[in-house]
Amino acid sequence: MKAKFPDGFYWGGATAANQLEGAHQANGKGMSISDLLLGGDVKTPRRITTEIEEGAFYPSHEAIDHFHRYKEDIALFAEMGFKLYRFSIAWTRIFPTGLEKVPNEEGLKFYDDLIAELKKYEIEPMVSLSHYESPIEMTKQFNGWESREMIEAYERFAKTVIDRYQDDVRYWLTFNEINILSRDVGVGTYLGGGMYPKDIDDFLNTKNIDNSQQRFQALHHQFVASARVIKYAKSLHKNLHMGCMIAYRMIYPLSSHPEDIRFAQEMTNISNFYCGDVQVKGRYPYFAKKFWQDRGIDLTIEAGDLEVLKEGTVDFYTFSYYQSSTVTKVNDQAEKQTGNFFNGVKNPHLTASEWGWEIDPLGLRIALNQIYERYEIPLMVVENGLGAIDTLIEKNGEYTVEDDYRIDYLRRHIKAMADAIADGVDLIGYTSWGPIDLVSAGTGQMAKRYGFIYVDKHDNGTGSLARYKKKSFYWYKKVIQSNGEGVN
Ligand code: BG6
Question: What spacing in Å lies between the alpha carbon of 450 and ligand 1's midpoint?
């Protein structure tokens, strides 16, 4: 059966400023938390420094230099037929420390130009307001989202860009993978919350220490900030579509033991529904109170906060999906699985990528049904893809990559989306992650490539930055041209 997608389905790609722009000090840009992250690899966690260390290599500083090459890159996206492009506006280009009262015009200029370029090709822009890029100065002054001070600073930034682009940008996401703060992963606390857990020294030495009181308080601040911005955007009466973005963790129990089933349910609640419910339904879920009590979490919720959450709910739900995750309560012999900010045990029915991420297209169909059943609002998959090692070869006088493994991964996930649509799910778009090779958030590597476009840039910082079309470039172009039917 041919894959069927609704007319006007948004095919495209997604990126984040800190992972591709580079030019980290150009035109008055300030430093974000990502600018202090060194590179790592699948076995070595990324190290975080408090200042720039002489001679150290920071992958975000040049990244793939999209800042100077955005025209060339967008022309390639247009050649593939993109209908929508998701990117983030780097907060520190607009408010270099986050504390300024007046925005940096030169920083805004870059996004004026970028959005104009997208419009030229009739590509719909979708903006992530916060994608692991909070200003480092705010981490230094009050430990990022642990403090309520962030709400006002974020609002100032968000309102500035919404005011400026309200006629050109209709789709906005308030926080990338907001639920990263519901997981006890050190680097997630730093990237998502712009903060160090209490023991900074241990944290800098990459010991995975946790502080759940702090994480959930920070999340509360982000919920309030997101809701306030959504309420503001709606007051403009411009038909702006405001969305949430969740790192969806499709969780399976390892066995049919009721303890495993209950554990998977508990993890699903906290990993996915805790944030989703607040942002879609406008209130904390029924299980939140017991969850807080069990962990000794005592949230400070100020007068008016709960009303704001009710008033600032999202219009559509977006999420990232790369892999599923399997958990057990009863089998302590089960082999551990490592992956993107998730952990769990190995699923005997799945194979994994070179980075250990378990490949599970059917899990995407299940996730789409699970989310839609709960919320019944339009959904969009805004990140999905295969991070893999690519080899550049010369063929018929041109450089390319024969990335059949990537085509196979994407094909199976796109088919799973078509199945979910046939199930009745209202899915409105798909933006694959990193349509052009960029810096990995998890490891800081260039070697972990997701793109349809190869970028000649390497983990030691060398490379000409030249762009080359991979085999998947032509395949994705066909998929878009045929509105999904050509996926086979
Ligand atoms: C998501 C993030 O977690 O996964 C992206 O929103 C990230 O920023 C993507 O790049 C893929 O993860 P990684 O670690 O392979 O870059």
Answer: 10
**Ligand 1 centre and the CA of 177: distance in Å?**
10
Q: How far is the CA of 257 from the centre of ligand 1 (A)?
A: 33
Backbone dihedral angles phi then psi of residue 269, each to the nearest 5 degrees: -55, -50
Token representation of residue 72: 């060339």
Nearest CA to ligand 1 atom 10: 441
Tell me, rounded to whole angstroms, the distance of Cα 297 from its chain centroid: 27
User: Does the pLDDT at position 45 exceed 90?
Assistant: no
CATH 3.20.20.150 fits 10-487, yes or no: no
Distance, first Cα to last Cα, the chain: 10
- CA gap 2, 119 in Å, rounded: 31
Q: Rounded to two decimals, what is the model's pTM? A: 0.97
Strand, coil or helix: 180: helix
DSSP 388: B
Tell me the domain boundaries of the chain.
10-487
CA–CA gap between residue 332 and residue 355 (Å, rounded)? 23
Mutation to probe ligand 1, out of 383, 384, 406, 450 (largest number of atoms < 8 A from CB)? 383
Q: Report the nearest atom of ligand 1 relative to the CA of 320.
A: 1
- The pLDDT tens digits of the residues spanning 207-228 come to 667 889 999 999 999 999 999 9
CB-CB contact of 284 with 196 (8 Å): no
